[in-house]
Design brief:
3 helices; 39 strands; eleven-stranded parallel β-sheet; mainly beta; 2 domains
């Protein structure tokens, strides 16, 4: 790789970007706080690249320092992206595979938070009365040893783990109630439970999280519900390795997870979603709050899949956020037309960054076409599109036939429809900056 293969390109936008390109290598420079990293020789004449993060670039001798913005390194460490940038020296092979921002092919893989660990011995539950006693006594290790029926909503106001005996999974069945568990405490951990709620009410749910908790988790469970499985107004929540399926007669529309707030890191991670048979299942509904409820949040959709019955869409967002990040990595779903829908005027202005890496979307037979990995619609007139986010997309396997009423935004194409808009609602003369997180070189 010779020095003359580098070129500089200065972009303007919400942040100051400088792309130093060696084939497809990109380094982001966006802040005046720096950490120095020694880099190996990446030039054939014994020189390395040095950047001060302010748009000033120079070449220096081997083992000189390449400076990378401290802000970006900290964000990577904080969000647990792999691999972590803790090493000092990098080999040529690594530089041909990684950049200093994320990991090629495994970008933005979040690390799960550690759920609550009980301090007490197990409190064994075989009846609803025993469950009532355990909750009122604030036992922190509630373990189901039998299938039970709930006839009233259970409010959890203390930290605890709720699970089943090891090696078993019993059903908790709702009878005559819309909400099964109302959680108001932090550090509540549901693990390996089957929830069944066939109530046809539009507000039916299995677990409702409210308050300001930051470490509530739902893992390894099965949800059979007629409407919602989990609703959350928390700053962040973690939903990992669960199966969601429909129970009862399919309604006009159906959503499994509802978020009315996300101001922290919400992880929707390695779940399986099964449609309701009417192609009207949205796995995730983001709606109901105000912009302040979606300010500075980061939503991760990681390695979720559809199974058995196709979906209508992975997610729909109806509330305009602010300084919001959306990361979608390694999801694989079969859908009618949608993946992630933005529904409202001015929505893109609220995003700081949208990253889509290694996702696979398959359309069912008879689909009228794809709306894009992120498709933008509006209940109003729409108007001229404005935007602020940095868009990154790489390694996605997406349909290349768009619906007639959807068009890719500039810099997207039908072969790479990362961001599309409903052309009967919006018009655009803007160029959207797309910065692929690809760094593997061809040399």
């Amino acid at each position: 790789m010779s020095l003359n293969k580098f070129s500089l390109q200065q972009n303007t936008g919400s942040e100051n970007w400088m792309n130093i390109k060696a084939s497809s290598m990109t380094i982001k420079c966006a802040d005046d706080n720096f950490i120095n990293y020694k880099c190996p020789n990446i030039g054939n004449d014994g020189e390395v690249l040095t950047s001060d993060g302010l748009g000033n670039v120079s070449f220096g001798p081997v083992n000189s320092l390449v400076t990378v913005p401290n802000q970006e390194l900290q964000s990577i460490e904080t969000l647990d992206y792999n691999p972590k940038l803790s090493k000092i020296t990098w080999t040529n092979t690594e530089l041909n595979t990684y950049n200093l921002y994320n990991y090629y092919g495994r970008a933005y893989r979040p690390t799960l938070r550690t759920p609550f660990t009980p301090a007490q011995n197990s409190t064994i539950i075989s009846t609803e009365a025993q469950l009532n006693t355990a909750i009122s006594s604030q036992n922190d290790n509630i373990v189901f040893a039998n299938t039970i029926t709930l006839t009233s909503t259970k409010t959890i106001s203390h930290s605890c783990k709720i699970s089943c005996l090891t090696g078993t999974r019993f059903s908790i069945i709702a009878s005559g109630i819309t909400n099964m568990f109302n959680v108001t405490a932090d550090n509540v951990f549901f693990d390996n439970v089957e929830f069944v709620n066939g109530n046809s009410s539009s507000v039916t749910t299995c677990i409702t999280f409210t308050g300001n908790a930051t470490n509530n988790c739902v893992h390894n469970s099965v949800f059979k519900t007629n409407e919602f499985a989990i609703t959350s107004s928390l700053p962040q929540v973690q939903i990992y390795n669960n199966q969601f399926q429909f129970e009862g007669t399919p309604p006009d529309s159906h959503r499994y997870i509802s978020l009315s707030k996300c101001t922290g890191k919400t992880l929707i991670y390695e779940n399986t979603f099964i449609g309701n048979g009417l192609l009207s299942t949205a796995c995730l509904l983001i709606s109901g709050g105000s912009t302040s409820d979606f300010t500075n949040g980061h939503l991760f959709l990681f390695k979720n899949i559809s199974d058995i019955v196709p979906l209508q869409r992975m997610a729909i967002m109806e509330t305009t956020p602010a300084n919001f990040k959306l990361t979608m990595t390694e999801n694989n779903i079969e859908t009618y037309t949608d993946f992630f829908i933005l529904y409202g005027d001015g929505m893109l202005d609220g995003f700081d960054e949208i990253t889509a890496n290694n996702n696979t979307v398959t359309l069912i037979d008879g689909s009228p076409g794809f709306k894009g990995l992120v498709g933008w619609d509006s209940p109003g007139s729409g108007g001229i599109i404005t935007y602020s986010p940095i868009i990154r997309g790489s390694l996605n396997t997406l349909p290349n036939t768009l619906r007639d009423d959807y068009s890719p935004l500039p810099n997207c194409t039908n072969d790479n429809p990362i961001l599309c808009f409903k052309n009967t609602k919006f018009s655009t003369e803007l160029q959207v900056p797309i910065n692929p997180p690809l760094v593997a070189t061809t040399d």
